[in-house]
Amino acid sequence: MNFENKVSTVPGFIRNIVVNIHPETHPFLSHKVKDTWVDITYKEAIEKIDAISAWLLHIGIQKGDKLALIIENGPDYIYYDQALQQIGAVNTSIYPTLSEADMEYILNDSGARTILVGNPFLFKKVLKIANNCPALIRVIPAFDDHEKHINSAVNANIVSLKQVAEEGLTLIDQYRSAITTSREAILPSDLSCLIYTSGTTGIPKGVMLTHYNLTTNVWASLIQITVVDKDDVFLSFLPLSHVFERTATYHICLAVGCKIAFAQSLDLLARNMGEVRPTVMNCVPRLLERIQDRAMKSGTAGGGFKAKIFTWSLGIGRKFRETNEAGKTPGIVLSVQNRIAEKLVFNKIKEKTGGRLKFMISGGGALPKNVGEFFGDLGIKVLEGYGLTETSPVMSVNEQDRQVYGTAGRVIPGIEVGIQNIDTKQIYTIQTHESFKPDFQSEEGEIIVRGHCVMKGYWNKPEETAVAIDADGWFHTGDIGRFYKGNIQITDRLKNMLVNAYGKNVYPTPVENTYLKSPKIEGVFLIGDKREHITAIIIPNKESLQEQFNLKEEFFERPEVFIDDKEINQWIGQDIRKLSNELAKFERIKAFKVKRKPFSMEDGEITPTLKAKRKVIEKKYADVIDELYLQETEAD
User: Fold this and answer.
1) Where is the AMP-dependent synthetase/ligase domain (predicted)?
2) What digits encode the pLDDT tens for the residues 261-287?
3) What is the average per-residue pLDDT within 72-80?
């Protein structure tokens, strides 16, 4: 696959837009200021970007310097990133939820020279560790009145982003030629960003992604999803510190010329969807599960005729979808019934998303098959993709016109994906975009990949790099999967695999997804490695629990970590027993404990991408887990 004639550096994207796609006066970004959505044109953005670049050059920033960002999504992230990218510096984004210790480690490991800080809370955290980071020369708060939050001496200079932009404007003429020269000197092989993966074990590792990695991943993804166009509006709410949102929203929009609107927060996302009326959104499986839960609850609440219409409509939607997916034309009766279902039920749900969604892309974890099918029944296309930070990230994504629910789609152009035997290391199959066959199925094993998407390596960690990328150039994902109907299907993480006392392999993700079908259950953490049977820590669905038992907020604020109420445990146990029938006997939950609050990043129990840290959780709750294997089974 030839990408040679495409833009091959990140700062090349925006310049290509104003030359070949949109006039400078066209809206590029949109964000809410007080109660009003404000558009920012390409011309306004480029002026701000160039001003920041001029200032950075003025303070001595050079090609290859690492510049950190710890800031929420918004125009300031884009300005600063584009400004540093076009002078050859390296974006080192930090998740806002990380601990001070992790922040300090990343700043020192990367040798970050500056850090852009998004709000007073994060600013205070940065100030606590700034003096422990000798390479840090500037702390740049992106908010007003930062002075009142400084209560101790800091070695690094503190200057607001507003001041940076104002001073930079006076420096543009002086540095305009240097900015152009710097931008044109960037090679596709140069480092564009360091993204630190916290992982479920070990210290953070800085993934080195080049301009070639990122830009080629965009062009390959656009070959796979052909329906993105320059008039699309993306609503961005997933963190730009994560490579999924950076590639699948930010860089895709830069390549095509789409408008990016920034959601105010996750809490206000539903309102923002109605206001912005996006045509495309990237999301994570858990959000889609919550939308499904709420839609089901709203549609069936109170029973009666309304609930019957809702259930009937979903059934018609399913028949209509399955007929189309089988390559058949729905008959007149089914088509009329589907139009009625659209009018009575589906359109009302779609209106809550703004009513213009062409599709959503789900990433960051496996999407349960039933969730994808639910949205498909409504006529809302959810395309599941797959990849890792180390793969830029996209390795595969479902095609618009050939979707297989429960899979992560076809391999993107320009890469090879193999399935390798975990024990013998035999490669069962190697598939490419061109080798796709809709009836192909392979054996299960570790997913490996090589090609343009694979990272340059881990920063300062040659040994870990050598383990991850073998001598033949294969990156070992650590994910277990297979090819099903020509698409990649993820089974689980290799490190997550449980081997019970009888030698049976249990992959937690599909088992957990089975129990997550219950509207009573928000999360499941499976236990059972080297044990005779499976147990679990259950996170209840808070809304369902409150409604069923008339619980007040104080109940969830109690200091006891687990809920021992017999009625609540029996209520959840009913669904666990019922859903266990869908699983093999050795996969079924035999006992469980109900946790009062979800696992949290603050407590170090999950990663910023919401993956459970298995070793941390098992160690932290070891006594409780041991009790599960002593008590009578709850779910038998």
Assistant:
1) 31-459
2) 999 998 899 999 999 999 999 998 888
3) 97
Question: Are residues 42 and 89 both part of a single domain?
Answer: yes
Residue 98 is predicted with a pLDDT of 84
pLDDT of residue 635: 42
Do residues 488 and 501 both lie within one domain? Answer: no
519 and 596 in a single domain? The answer is: yes
Q: Which has more confidence, 601 or 314?
A: 314
- In a shared domain, residues 573 and 426: no
Residue pair 436/486 in contact (Cβ under 8 Å)? The answer is yes
Confidence of residue 1 (pLDDT cuts 50, 70, 90): low
Rounded Cα–Cα distance for residues 568 and 566 (Å): 6
Which 8-state DSSP code applies to residue 441? B
What pLDDT is attached to residue 266? 87
Are 415 and 452 in contact, with CB atoms under 8 Å apart?
yes
| Cis peptide bond upstream of 393, omega within 30 | yes
SS3 for 613-630 is: CHHHHHHHCHHHHHHHCC
**Cβ within 8 Å of residue 547, ≥6 positions away:** none
| Cβ-proximal residues to 607 (8 Å cutoff; 6+ apart), any chain | 198, 199, 200, 601, 613
Q: Are residues 445 and 526 in the same domain?
A: no
Question: Do 501 and 484 reside in the same domain of the chain?
Answer: no
How many domains in the chain?
3
Of the residues 430, 458, 492, the one at which a domain ends: 492
Contact 134/126 with Cβ under 8 angstroms?
Answer: no
Q: 482, 505, 496, 497: which is closest to 419 by C-alpha?
A: 482
Report the predicted TM-score, pTM, of the whole model to 2 decimal places: 0.85
> How many of the other CB atoms lie within 10 Å of CB of 529?
16
Question: Which pLDDT value is given to residue 3?
Answer: 63
Angle at 582 between CA 578 and CA 583, to 5 degrees: 115
Q: 501 and 486 in one domain?
A: no
Asked if 498 contacts 526 with a C-beta cutoff of 8 angstroms, the reply is yes
Lowest mean pLDDT among 74-78, 315-319, 508-512: 508-512
- Nearest-5° angle of CA 44, CA 47, CA 50? 150
CB–CB of 474/418 below 8 Å? yes
Rounded to an integer, what distance in angstroms lies between the CA atom of residue 532 and that of residue 371? 31
- Specify the pairing of strand 457-458 against strand 427-431: unpaired
Q: Three-state DSSP class for 469? A: strand
Q: What mean pLDDT do residues 486-515 have?
A: 84
**For residue 309, what are the contacts with CB-CB under 8 A and spacing of at least 6?**
344, 345
Q: Are residues 488 and 519 in the same domain?
A: no
Q: Which of 326, 280, 58 is nearest to 166 (CA)?
A: 58
pLDDT for position 287: 87
Q: Cβ-count burial of 93 within 10 angstroms (0-12 exposed, 13-18 middle, 19+ buried)? A: buried
Q: Residue 233: inside a domain, yes or no?
A: no
Angle between helices 566-580 and 542-549 (to 10 degrees): 120
Judge whether 503 and 531 are in contact, CB under 8 Å. no
